[in-house]
Amino acid sequence: MRRGHIFYFMILICCLVACQASEIPITPYPTYTPYPTYTPYPTYTPAPISLSSQLPSAEIEDLVWPTGGRDDVIPFHEASAFIGETVTVEGRVIRTYNSGNAVFLNFAQDTTIFTAVIFPDDWSKFPKAPEDLFYGQLVRVEGLIEEYQGTPEIIIRDPWQIEVALTLGRPIVTACDCKPDHLVQAEEIVIATASPTSEQAKDEADAFVSPSTPEPAGSELPVAEGTTSPEAIDPPAVISWADADAYIGQTLSVEGHIVDTYNSGKVVFLNFSPDFRTTFKVVIFPEAWPLFPAPPEEYYSDKTILVTGEIKMYQNAPEIIVDHPDQIEIVE
Hints:
By secondary structure, the chain is α+β, with helices and mostly antiparallel strands. Among the domains are: 51-167, CATH 2.40.50.140; 238-330, CATH 2.40.50.140. It has helices at 2-23, 130-133, 181-193, 199-208, 296-299; strands at residues 63-64, 73-75, 86-92, 95-98, 103-106, 115-118, 138-148, 151-155, 162-164, 166-167, 238-240, 251-257, 260-263, 268-271, 281-284, 304-314, 317-322, 328-330. The strands form 3 sheets. Strands 2, 3, 4, 5, 6, 7, 8 and 9 form an 8-stranded mixed beta sheet that branches. The radius of gyration is 42 Å and the shape is elongated.
């Protein structure tokens, strides 16, 4: 009897345990929820700056390049980024220098930015001296950019490598030394009227002159600009520094007293007036400094000098570039 009770009691306990176990909820393992990924706002990428917008020619109206427009031209101040590449560089030649061994075309006061170089063997290929032909001109130079003593440069060996910008109505510079048609006609008339035995030539000369504009007695045919009149007065051998601006492009001797000198480290200026920005000055570049017996800014300070050379205009002021001490004579 006891064993039967114990058996039933054990069954009851098992049922109670099973019931309690069925009431306990099963907790599953937690599922993995990844952190949300961060999506940044899209960044703004500006359009690349076109180098053509930085070219000097982009600011000039009615500009014509003889070979036509191009989109592969860089401004001269970007030349250092193209070392070893063949490109076309644009800029205005603000200074030229003929050392006797090479002609240098400089596009900025800082001559280390970019320089075009022409050696003596190639000077004769141009219609006139390159230092005069390209001075003050807006040009494009094509060639291999090389680095020489830290300065990017292009060596010009043929005239086709350099192109001068033109404005509408401006004549194209050529190597032809031909005379304009109206000057040839004028010379023919002078020859005809000077020959009393040629009546036909005299009649043709008379017919050339418009009857509505008779010339007064003793008058002569007008001399076209750029020609020399038989009675033209030669410029004086020596001029005052104050008159230099009237002889731009001519090679003369200029006399005056040096009132101030300045060495910028890149150029020496000998000034004849306190108003040095707009008046005549002498310019000496570093290549010539060792040729003088003393630093030029000291040697010529407070001296009266006679300087000989071509008078050029730079930034509205006349100047002579001195390459050798022989160009300057101390008067007192």
